[in-house]
Structure formats: C-alpha cells, structure tokens
Amino acid sequence: MALEDDGGLREELEGILAATECACCVGSYCSAEEALEEIAAANPDVILMDIKLPGMSGIECVARLRGTLPDARVIMLTVYEDSDRIFQALQAGADGYLVKSSSAATLIEAIIDVYKGGSPMSSHIARKVVRQFRQLAPAPNEAENLSRREKEVLELLACGYVYKEIADQLGIGIETIKTYVKSICKKLHVRNRVEAVARYSHK
C-alpha cells in the first residue's frame, strides 16, 4: 500500500509494485485521512508512507496505524533527511526509512527486507540514526533485566539477522520472536527494535 500526495510519484510506486512478482499494491492514497478510513479492510503487510502529507502528517499516521494494524510494516519515503524527522518517524513506529530518489530495485529489496522483519534504511540515513541514538544515555543496568533468551534474540538482531533467521537459529517460531522483541522493548524503555539494538549496542 502506498500513501503519497504527489500523483506522479504515486503512479510510479504503483507501477514498480505491479512490475514485480513478489508484491502487489492493495491500495494507494493521497492523504492519511483517506487511507485510515479504508486501510483496515485492505490489511496491507507493508505500507510505503510519505512523511509530508496534506493534513495529517505521515508521522502521525504511522502512530495511529500502530493501534489498528500493529503487524503492518511501514517504510517512510521522503526527501527529508534531518535527524529530528527520522527520529520522530521511528519513535512513531516506522520500520524503515528511504529517500524518494531510491531506485526501484532498492525499493523492492526494502519491501522484502521489512516484510521479513528487517529495518531497511538508506545508508546515509542509517548513519544519522546511529549518531542520534549515540546521544541517548541508556539507563544503567537496563540490559540486566533481560532474560537469557531475550539477550540471545537482541544479540542476533544487533548482528543484522531478521526474525525468520533468528527463529531458525533458535529453533522457535517467528511469533515467539516477536513476543520476545516486544518484551525487550518494554524492558529497555524503547519503542521499536531499531532503538533496542542501538541502546543495547551502546550500553
């Protein structure tokens, strides 16, 4: 599903999705308000979200979607690369962050990655995220509250493994991995796995 107010770019995204065998577009909208009325029925696995939409912003839309479609994966597509917007989008619940100039191949790769549990980001945006998280001082001994299995899951996330790969390595189901990640985020006082990895890596 795509949310983009630029008609030309929205059609381009629809074309990219139509041209690949691994994904299809179940809907496209020019505003968050329009999408929120119909998105639950469409039940998309991955949402491509413009950060600057008319009316409600993409960041606010992501936050609302977390209440109605908690399992949907959201990739922000934007021309904005400032750290504040990136951080706000991740805090709201975005799973990835790509610039609109990304190639069609990069976009499809990101969709596959985020669907499997990854957090795709343009490389220079990822560097901004790392710098931003380094400024966060983790509370002392937060990681000590994690169970042995939670630490194993978090260490594998930090190594770049996606949920399916972690599940295969540990011999447990993907839904169990998701449950562990939710518990990890709660114990580390973070909003998503990207923040959890960053906080754990700089503990």
Please describe what this structure looks like.
The chain is an alpha/beta fold and 203 residues long. It is globular. The mean pLDDT is 85. Strands 2-1-3-4-5 form a five-stranded parallel beta sheet, with helices on both faces. It contains ten helices and five strands; from the N terminus they run βαβαβαβαβαααααα. It folds into two domains: 2-133, Rossmann fold, CATH 3.40.50; 138-201, Winged helix-like DNA-binding domain superfamily/Winged helix DNA-binding domain (Arc Repressor Mutant, subunit A).
Helix content: 40-55%
How many separate domains? 2
Low-confidence stretches: none
Taken as a percent bin, the fraction of beta residues is 5-15%
How many H/I helices?
A: 10
The third-level CATH topology of the largest domain is Rossmann fold
Q: How many whole angstroms does the radius of gyration measure? A: 17 Å
- Give the overall shape: globular
Mean pLDDT: 85
Order of helices and strands: EHEHEHEHEHHHHHH
**End-to-end span in angstroms?**
37 Å
- Let me know the number of strands: 5
The CATH homologous superfamily of the largest domain corresponds to: Response regulator
Task: Please list the strands of the largest sheet in the order they lie side by side.
Answer: 2-1-3-4-5
Describe the structure concisely:
This protein has 203 residues and is of the alpha/beta class.
Sequence-ordered SSE layout with sheet pairings:
Layout lengths: L1 E2 L3 H12 L9 E2 L2 H11 L3 E5 L7 H11 L4 E6 L4 H10 L3 E4 L4 H12 L7 H12 L13 H11 L4 H8 L3 H15 L4 H9 L2
Parallel strand pairs: 1-2, 1-3, 3-4, 4-5
Helix pairs in contact: 2-3, 3-4, 7-9, 7-10, 8-9, 9-10
